[in-house]
């Protein structure tokens, strides 16, 4: 397997089967590269993340946090009215009390504002293993946050002190109610003792009852005195809130960084969703998996075709030079050493859909490359709907006309019964059977004359290249597959669907052929003009024209169409 994960040509159908089995790391790398094709989605996610982070930084960056800490002192009487044990404080209950609406109303009165409109976000926490409460207030202003924290702490302490005083007062009132009848009983018994007639036995009982009442009254008085002497201080402020010098929370740079990170994640997620539901082919790996055949070559992005004086494209720009020509040569060599192609030496070039402009250029350049290898090449233009090769290629003068050894005329006007020798510059000469508009295309493609032309590949060192219209547009290519076994798909991976390639593979294999591979291109590839080519309509340069393979180099260099720079 190559560095790009594409199996090499030259192994026949085994290479086609191996193309579908990618290693998982290669597949993951290929999918990640495909995600990067949706850079606009990733960029959109980053922009949205930065906008969100900037909005949070601007809207929340002006918030200030101030903290007040207090210690909670145990109260002498708990909520049930019983005396509490020393040091016994339920900090969970005290924290809930600090967050209650009662304390909030008191804080609002301290701040002289409505309780529901205090511009503060309050948090009350209890540090572990302590009897402390920490009041943290977050507000738009530094002073407002400090005032709110101090007001909440003061309100909590006031509420707790008032609650303690209320409990003491309630207990005192309860003891006083118990003492009131005892006082009356004591006074009655004292009066009875004073008015006693001397009955010692009755007097002793009255004195004992009086002593008991006095003792009980003394106990209640002692309890009341103890309650009134209790310290009801609820606690004290340890740390008083002061206006903070800087806003709280993450700053604008950190929020922008977090927003960018979240935006990248959202962009990658959106790109992945777009990739999952995108039926188009986005990489050579998709082509390999859909066709079960290797990618034989990728044409480099060529320059735009030359324009003549009228603004029309230069029609003499089919033959490539430079990197583009070298890529065609590479594809030709890979085909020459492919076992499946070597058995028959016939190849059918077809695009999936649409225009055949790039397939047409590929057929001409592959023919020139095979001619350079010393092969006897016949290019058959089977496009009988929009033929154009005759007027776009230059005939080689001085070469024996091909019609002397051509088959007979077709029954309906095509093939025309002759071959045109085409000047391929330094690569040599190849024969062309040009297309011709006919009224009955299916009959022309299946005629015996076409069969005789296809049999040209059976000769030694002969290669047949057939150019046909889009295989999914017309059935012309399918009609030729039974005689031209090997199919080369020429496509732009950005403009073809995966199911289109799978459909082509099914049609080709169903008709008895095999897909050799694919030749990928992008918009503009295959139309690179020849260096020094003259515009259409310009008279040819003076001097002798190409007169055959034995003509001196300096004669051939100035005329015709050169394919490659040696």
UniProtKB/TrEMBL annotation:
Keyword Protease annotated: no
Listed transmembrane segments: 38-58, 252-273
Region called Disordered, residue ranges: 1-20, 75-94, 524-566
InterPro entries: Bact_polysacc_biosynth/exp (IPR050445), P-loop_NTPase (IPR027417)
Record's keyword terms, sorted: Membrane, Transmembrane, Transmembrane helix
Domain of life, per lineage: Bacteria
PANTHER family: FERRIC ENTEROBACTIN TRANSPORT PROTEIN FEPE (PTHR32309:SF13), TYROSINE-PROTEIN KINASE (PTHR32309)
Protein's recorded name: Lipopolysaccharide biosynthesis protein
Naturally occurring in which organism (per UniProt): Streptomyces albus
């Amino acid at each position: 397997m190559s560095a790009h994960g594409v199996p090499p040509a030259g192994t026949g159908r085994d290479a086609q089967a191996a193309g579908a089995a990618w290693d998982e790391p290669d597949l993951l790398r290929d999918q990640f590269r495909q995600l990067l094709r949706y850079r606009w989605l990733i960029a959109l996610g980053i922009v949205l993340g930065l906008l969100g982070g900037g909005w949070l930084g601007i809207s929340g960056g002006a918030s200030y946090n101030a903290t007040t800490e207090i210690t909670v002192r145990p109260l002498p009487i708990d909520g049930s009215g019983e005396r509490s044990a020393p040091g016994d404080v339920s900090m969970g209950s005290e924290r809930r009390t600090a967050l209650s609406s009662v304390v909030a109303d008191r804080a609002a009165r301290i701040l002289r504002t409505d309780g529901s409109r205090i511009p503060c976000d309050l948090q009350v926490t209890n540090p572990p293993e302590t009897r402390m409460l920490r009041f943290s207030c977050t507000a738009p202003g530094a002073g407002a946050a400090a005032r709110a924290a101090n007001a909440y702490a003061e309100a909590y302490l006031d509420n707790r002190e008032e609650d303690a005083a209320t409990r003491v007062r309630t207990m005192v009132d309860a003891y006083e109610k118990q003492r009131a009848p005892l006082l009356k009983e004591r006074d009655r018994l004292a009066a009875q003792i004073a008015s006693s007639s001397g009955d010692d036995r009755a007097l002793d009982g009255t004195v004992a009852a009086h002593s008991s009442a006095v003792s009980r009254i003394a106990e209640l008085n002692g309890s009341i005195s103890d309650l009134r002497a209790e310290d009801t201080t609820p606690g004290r402020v340890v740390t008083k809130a002061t206006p903070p010098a800087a806003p709280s929370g993450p700053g604008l740079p950190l929020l922008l960084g977090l927003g960018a990170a979240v935006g990248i994640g959202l962009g990658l997620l959106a790109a992945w969703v777009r990739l999952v539901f995108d039926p188009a082919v986005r990489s050579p790996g998709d082509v390999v998996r859909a066709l079960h055949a290797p990618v034989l070559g990728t044409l480099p992005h060529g320059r735009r075709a030359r324009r003549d004086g009228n603004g029309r494209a230069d029609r003499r720009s089919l033959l490539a030079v430079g990197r583009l020509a070298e890529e065609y040569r590479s594809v030709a060599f890979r085909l020459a050493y492919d076992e499946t192609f070597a058995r028959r030496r016939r190849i059918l070039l077809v695009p999936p859909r649409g225009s055949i402009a790039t397939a047409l250029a590929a057929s001409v350049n592959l023919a020139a490359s095979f001619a350079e290898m010393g092969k006897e090449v016949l290019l058959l233009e089977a496009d009988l709907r929009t033929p154009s090769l005759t007027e776009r290629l230059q005939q080689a003068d001085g070469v024996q006309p091909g019609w002397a050894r051509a088959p007979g005329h077709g029954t309906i006007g095509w093939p025309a019964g002759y071959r045109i020798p085409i000047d391929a510059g330094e690569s040599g000469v190849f024969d062309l059977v040009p297309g011709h508009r006919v009224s009955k295309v299916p009959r022309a493609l299946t005629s015996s004359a076409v069969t005789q032309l296809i049999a040209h590949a059976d000769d030694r060192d002969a290669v047949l290249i057939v150019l046909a219209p889009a295989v999914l547009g017309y059935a012309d290519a399918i009609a030729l597959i039974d005689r031209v076994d090997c199919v080369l798909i020429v496509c732009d991976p950005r403009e073809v669907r995966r199911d289109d390639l799978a459909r082509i593979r099914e049609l080709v294999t169903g008709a008895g052929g095999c897909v050799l591979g694919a030749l990928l291109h992008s918009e503009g590839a295959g139309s690179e003009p020849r260096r020094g080519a003259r515009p259409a309509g310009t008279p040819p340069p003076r001097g002798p024209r190409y007169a055959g393979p034995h003509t001196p180099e300096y004669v051939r260099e100035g005329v015709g169409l050169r394919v490659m720079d040696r």
